[in-house]
């Protein structure tokens, strides 16, 4: 029975051992030795069951091997297929690898292998899966790699391969995955790669490829991933990529692409990851990208995009990562983006976005990183953002945010990095922020924070940073924690801080006292006061007393405060400006006050208007007070009414004081007066105005009774009728008279200019005044319509009440003129103007038109004028010069018969043209044709020329016309006329 059992067992082991040929086993041993097999993790892990033991048969138990049919068909040294699956292979792939001819899968990823890919590896023609990623392989991709015709997966990523992609790669027709990313490959990507239509994954990123993104990539319609990022590709993004509707990942980042974002890519509705960052793309983000409803990660950062973030992005509810930073985007954030409830990372930094963060973004409950830095955001942060409990990184620096940081943000228990520097935040930081137990970096710098700094000593450790500089913090705000921050964390920046206390200005007088103060928290402060930038010796207290003040104390005072605990920080007080005056305020003169002493005992009751007295004393000064003293300097309670305590006249001192203790004084008198009689003037009638005469002392003019109305002064000019009052004395001692002043309106007369007339001047109607031959309304009275025939001066005079007025003008009478009278004349061709005795020739009436002169020749019928002008006189005559060619007809000449008496230009072929008859003898010369007005119509040679009855192509009417023939030698001239008949 045991024998039967043993035989099958022996047969079984013999079958297993027979599975692997000696050549394959030798190849495995060569591989084991070349890759330092004894030090593989699988060999040193203490588990011998999967060791490569070459003393026995090769089995499936060996780490990473798959044996089928007696052959090694699989070698997987990274069965977990990740970076942690390293089996610690070192060295190179030996050439003997080519002896594993049945190998279908080879995975050596994430090891420490180096050297080149052996050429014999391309002999593994059964190979379908080749994964060599994450090693240190160098050299080029084997040029005969197209021998691996069954290959469907090729991954040589994350090595140091160089050179170009050989065309042999593009001939791997069954390839589904091609991953060459993370090498040093260069040159242009073979365009033939766009013919590999079975590709699902194409990763060529992180190399040094040049050229463009081929439009032909649109042919690879089976692609689910296209990665060309981190190369040196240029040109525009081809719109043909719209055909890749199955794409899940598209990465064109970190290249040199230009142009705009193609709207056509809206068709990539299955895309989950799209990255176009770090290029030179321009223009707006197409709103159509809001149709990418499957998008999880979108990065368009570090381009030159502009415009707003499309509101249509509110439909991208699957977004977890959005990076639009480092562009030129503008506008505000739409509240509807609150639909991004899955968002984890949002980066909009380094744009020109403005407005506030909408309260609705409290919905970002999964948010881990928010980058809004370097924008134009403003407003306050909403307390509702405390729902961002997963936030780890919050960067808001370089904006215009304001207000306090809500205390509810203590809920950010996962926060690691916070930078809100260079804003306008203010108020105190909540002590509860010390609950940020995971914090590594805190930057509150360059704001307006004040008050106690939260105690972060329990959360910040040796590698962490805290920055609070350029705020309003003082020593006492963090001196208890200073030693820890200064000595126990990597970086603590707390200096400088803003100046402390308010800027102040004091205006004081010499002799007064002034105390300057600075208030700064801290238990170990050291003070040093400065005046005009120089330290004041001994001024080392918080208060600086200046007593008494002198002019030399004027200047600008500051104080520097240091601390023996918080070393390295110097606080400076805001400046105090002191002005020290010698003079102080001014007490202006106050008018004496009078009251009537009816019983003559020197005492009376005065009406005191304190407001008026103060107004007189202060004038336009501000910040001063008024007090009163008697002659001995005793304060006086001046009331209304007030009875004098000094007989007849009591002096009252008025003191004007400022807040600095400076004052100035003036004195006015309370005067008890006796009854008095006012001056009296008779009623006055005056023309235009009246000058008030001088009055006796104590008398004053007023426009109203009882010294009311406007006070007038002697010498004032009064221009209107009124009653004027003369007042003297005060109260019951006063007296008043009045007189009536009547001001007559000044008389107005017409103003006439001097005139010059020919023979006579007729006086026009006057509106104001009458005509006289002598001044002052004397001489003979003249009237409208009177005729003045001699040169004379006349006066216009008018009298009204006490007023009169006069104007004058001179009438110049010039003798009449006469000009020569010429008769009408008729001449043949021209008329020569004769000499004139009186007048000049003109072509128009009134001395207008063209001036003509003796000897000028008139060649056309016209009317001429003889005109003369002298002063206001002129004379004119006219005559007509008729130019008539009939007057030119000479005596009968036998040759006249040669010139036709008529012609009929009717285009009937008979007598259509007028020409000289040359039949019996010849006339040589020129012929000129004229109309009855002497206008030249045609000029031609007598031998060869003729006239067809037109002028410039226009037919002339039937009429008489004239001709003039001049013989060639000039000896004979024949003129005459003929008829044109139609």
Give a structural overview.
Among the domains are: 19-210, Leucine-rich repeat, LRR (right-handed beta-alpha superhelix) (Alpha-Beta Horseshoe), CATH 3.80.10; 504-581, Immunoglobulin-like (Sandwich); 593-673, Sandwich (Immunoglobulin-like), CATH 2.60.40; 684-744, no CATH class; 755-814, no CATH class; 825-883, no CATH class; 888-980, Immunoglobulin-like, CATH 2.60.40. Residues 1-18 have low confidence and may be disordered. The chain has 982 residues and is mostly beta strands. Helix content is 5%, strand content 34%. The protein starts with a helix and ends with a strand. It has six helices and 77 strands. The longest helix has 16 residues, at 2-17. The radius of gyration is 61 Å and the shape is flat. The strands form 18 sheets. The chain has a 19-stranded mixed sheet, with no helix packed on it.
Q: Which features would summarize this protein structure in a list?
A:
Immunoglobulin-like; repeat; membrane; glycoprotein; flat; receptor; Leucine-rich repeat, LRR (right-handed beta-alpha superhelix); disulfide bond; mainly beta; 19-stranded mixed beta sheet; 982 residues
Question: Please, what is the average pLDDT?
Answer: 92
Please state the second-level CATH architecture of the domain at 19-210: Alpha-Beta Horseshoe
Query: Which structural class do you get from the secondary structure elements?
Result: mainly beta
How many alpha or pi helices?
6
Task: Identify the CATH homologous superfamily of the domain at 19-210.
Answer: Ribonuclease Inhibitor
Task: Assess the beta-strand content as a share of residues.
Answer: 25-35%
In the CATH hierarchy, what is the class of the domain at 19-210? Alpha Beta
The description of the largest β-sheet is:
19 strands, mixed
- Radius of gyration (CA) equals 61 Å
Give the oligomeric state. Answer: single chain
C-alpha end-to-end distance: 159 Å
CATH topology of the domain at 19-210: Leucine-rich repeat, LRR (right-handed beta-alpha superhelix)
Based on DSSP secondary structure assignment, what is the total number of beta strands? 77
- Uncertain stretches of 5 or more adjacent residues: 1-18
| Helix share, percent | under 10%
Instruction: Tell me the overall shape.
Output: flat
